Structure prediction request, 268 residues.
Amino acid sequence: MNKHGGYDDQPIMAELYDLVPGYAKRTDIDFYLQCCVAAGGSILELGCGTGRILLPAAEAGCRVTGLDVSPHMLAQCQQKLQRKSHSVQSRVRLVHGDMTNFDLAELFHLAIVPFRAFQHVIAVDDQLTCLRRINRHLSTRGQLILDVFQVDLKKINNPRATEESEDFAEYELPDGRRLRRASRLAALHPADQVNDVELIYYLTNLDGTTERIVQAFPFRYIFRYEMEHLLARCGFRVIDLFGNFDKSPLADNSPEMIFVAEKCENLD
Prediction:
């Protein structure tokens, strides 16, 4: 199992990421874009991927450093960046690195970890190391914003979750190929709060042949007060907690947990 989301098992995963219909329409883009613009300074995005949020932020005038552990995802982001104006390109710095072990020699006004990227960090020691690294890269009273899904116990412990279920129906790509995706939990580890996830892409080529491409990775689930304790141990104070990207308060049926935390302590 790839501990970094399975994006490096096969180079095609970076291309497939940008072809998933729901990713381009996620409401988190507008949310994070507003936060980046409001920060009024340099931004650090951990797990920037192919630039889904980073590029709109740079187009909006933000200076953004994007870090990702996958060279394939960064290459895809770089290709997209090269199609932007020179002024947009000048505001972007892309860094190949692990969010649990980075040193950028720069302080940022805001750090963001969108689309549940923090849940790819499995071990508690690595979670703490990641948050402490972020703390050291933030200016005084700088903010960290990250999102994780709110745990639905029935869903994550459902024995039928090991069966494939369709994420989106087959549709035609611009080049004539066809794509659909299913997903399943290959294994459940409740004692470790980890599930082994498989995203299964069915890509039908122009000659009619179909490839079955599996992206497999462990995924950690995190509870509200567990996340608050992790942040507190790493020099942060939670100042807002939302249940969705419309900034609605966290409720029992909220799909997300979006933590807005302020740096309140400098770590040595």
